[in-house]
């Protein structure tokens, strides 16, 4: 089981990382094409409502369905999962189309929430156009999500990983090509270019769905063989099936919209709070672009690992929990937290230390962008911990507390956002986000400890080592960065790129050398590392 967890996580991690990195690097040419932070803010105005709608429309389908199928597969009732799959395809088609209609019709309302007064850079009509362009993706994505959940429930992570990458490639190709043609060849407006860019989500979804169809028909014979082995002792009605799915899905919805909800709070309150401290409207739009688009794109990269763990962890923990094997559940949770912290902490610290050259390479040199990114980077660790702790609660059937923890965090964010923005300007919104997620994670960990008898104290020694190695790595990287800054300017593109390469490589070498010397690396990835070493020896031979 532990090997399956690592293997499944490895596959999804590769797919998710490729997708996230593509989603990160496309912003370099896209930023140049659309022309800066104000246009980026317009893109964010459209995409944040879409993200919330897509989370609701899919109803947490991949994780909920994977959990449901894994549960019945564990007791060899394979026909139950197939019954869910067949009926779910129709339901998701209806759900997606309904969500599309609602978002399209009410897009003027969402636009007014984003820009409440007439003194903004963009009008309500322009923001409405962008929101409507992205809403078309809602027609396809729920259907695609059900298919991903079906494969994940069978502990087959490859189809989800490949379709995610193909979806991202198609989306980015259409986005960049379309935006470039509109602005530089047709002489069109930024609003039209951004509308084309958001419509790219629909194009990407089509390609992602085609990949899943290919995998399904390729593996249909194997899947049918499983159904033939069905015990046939459990007959679940469609009503009972969907009642159970809804119970699973509601917490997943809240987890899926956690970050978008925080962004929506910023979208609704940021302009009001900034205007009350006397900042100009154009500066407000640019600052919002930095907060909700530019820095968020960079910070979300370490979180991709948590996403991969969450998708893999739920069916694995569910199977072990249903079978009553608490020792395996504990071992899975130990492994998850250890690997998660081992990889996300240095990634977040690295982004914070290299904030200035990173922002320069991906966008342009900006003091505001650098300051916000430096503060925002550590929040990635909180995003990751929230995703994984919430996934664990699904696995141990305590998903009801996920809603409580998220609502508590949202309440903290709502209460503190405007006061902190007034005190610290753009960085205040980041502080409010961090405090909200800390509240949610605290509740999640308490629930896990109470109902699963699990505590992070069991891996306290390894966490201490991870923290210590990160401190050493940070000192080395900061010293090297200070020296390089004397001869290379972090305000220029290519010098910044060189600084990042040298510092990142040095930091990685120091971190992994310390981890290897202490035995931590072998403890966390022993079986995987042994397999890689064997393959390398065979190739040499």
Automatic annotation (TrEMBL):
GO cellular component labels: plasma membrane
Signal peptide: none
Location(s), subcellular: Cell membrane
Transmembrane segments: 9-28, 48-69, 89-110, 130-151, 172-191, 197-217, 238-265, 298-317, 337-355, 375-396, 403-424, 430-451, 463-487, 493-514
Pfam hit, one: Polysacc_synt
GO biological process, one term: cell division
Domain of life: Bacteria
UniProt organism field: Domibacillus aminovorans
Protein name per Swiss-Prot or TrEMBL: Cell division protein
Source organism phylogeny: Bacteria, Bacillati, Bacillota, Bacilli, Bacillales
């Amino acid at each position: 089981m532990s090997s399956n967890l690592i293997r499944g996580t490895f596959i999804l991690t590769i797919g998710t990382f490729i997708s996230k990195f593509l989603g990160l690097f496309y912003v370099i040419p896209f930023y140049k094409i659309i022309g800066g932070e104000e246009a980026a803010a317009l893109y964010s105005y459209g995409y944040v409502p879409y993200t919330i709608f897509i989370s609701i429309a899919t109803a947490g389908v991949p994780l909920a369905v994977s959990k449901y199928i894994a549960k019945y597969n564990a007791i060899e009732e394979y026909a139950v999962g197939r019954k869910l799959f067949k009926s779910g395809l129709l339901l998701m088609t209806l759900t997606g189309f309904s969500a599309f209609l609602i978002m399209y019709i009410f897009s003027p309302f969402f636009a007014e929430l984003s820009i409440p007064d007439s003194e903004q850079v963009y009008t309500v009509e322009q923001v409405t156009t962008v929101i409507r362009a992205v809403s078309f993706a809602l027609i396809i994505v729920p259907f695609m999500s059900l298919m991903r959940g079906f494969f994940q429930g069978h502990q087959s992570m490859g189809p989800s990983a490949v379709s995610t990458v193909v979806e991202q490639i198609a989306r980015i190709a259409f986005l960049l090509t379309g935006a470039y043609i509109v602005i530089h060849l047709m002489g069109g407006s930024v609003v039209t270019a951004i509308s084309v860019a958001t419509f790219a989500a629909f194009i990407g979804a089509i390609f992602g769905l085609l990949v899943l169809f290919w995998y399904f028909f390729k593996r249909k014979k194997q899947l049918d063989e499983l159904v033939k082995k069905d015990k046939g002792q459990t007959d679940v009605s469609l009503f009972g099936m969907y009642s159970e799915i809804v119970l699973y899905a509601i917490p997943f919805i809240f987890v899926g919209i956690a970050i978008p909800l925080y962004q929506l709070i910023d979208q609704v309150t940021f302009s009001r709070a900034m205007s009350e401290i006397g900042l100009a409207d154009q500066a407000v739009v640019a600052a919002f672009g930095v907060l909700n688009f530019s820095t968020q794109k960079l910070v979300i990269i370490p979180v991709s690992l948590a996403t991969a763990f969450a998708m893999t962890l739920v069916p694995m923990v569910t199977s072990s929990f249903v079978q009553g094997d608490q020792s395996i559940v504990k071992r899975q949770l130990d492994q998850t937290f250890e690997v998660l912290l081992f990889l996300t902490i240095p990634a977040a610290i690295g982004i914070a230390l290299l904030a200035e050259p990173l922002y320069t390479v991906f966008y342009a040199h900006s003091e505001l962008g650098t300051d916000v990114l430096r503060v925002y980077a550590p929040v990635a660790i909180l995003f990751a911990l929230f995703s994984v702790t919430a996934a664990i609660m699904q696995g141990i059937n305590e998903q009801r507390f996920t809603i409580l923890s998220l609502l508590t965090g949202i309440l903290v964010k709502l209460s503190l956002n405007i006061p902190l923005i007034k005190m610290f300007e753009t960085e205040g919104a980041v502080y409010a986000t961090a405090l909200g997620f800390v509240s949610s994670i605290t509740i999640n960990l308490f629930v896990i400890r109470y109902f699963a008898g699990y505590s992070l104290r069991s891996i306290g020694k390894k966490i201490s080592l991870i923290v210590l190695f990160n401190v050493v790595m940070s000192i080395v990287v900061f010293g090297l960065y200070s020296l390089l800054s004397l001869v290379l300017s972090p305000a220029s593109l290519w010098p910044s790129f060189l600084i990042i390469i040298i510092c990142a490589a040095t930091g990685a070498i120091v971190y992994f050398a310390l981890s290897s010397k202490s035995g931590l690396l072998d403890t966390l990835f022993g079986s995987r590392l042994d397999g890689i070493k064997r393959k390398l020896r065979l190739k040499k031979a």
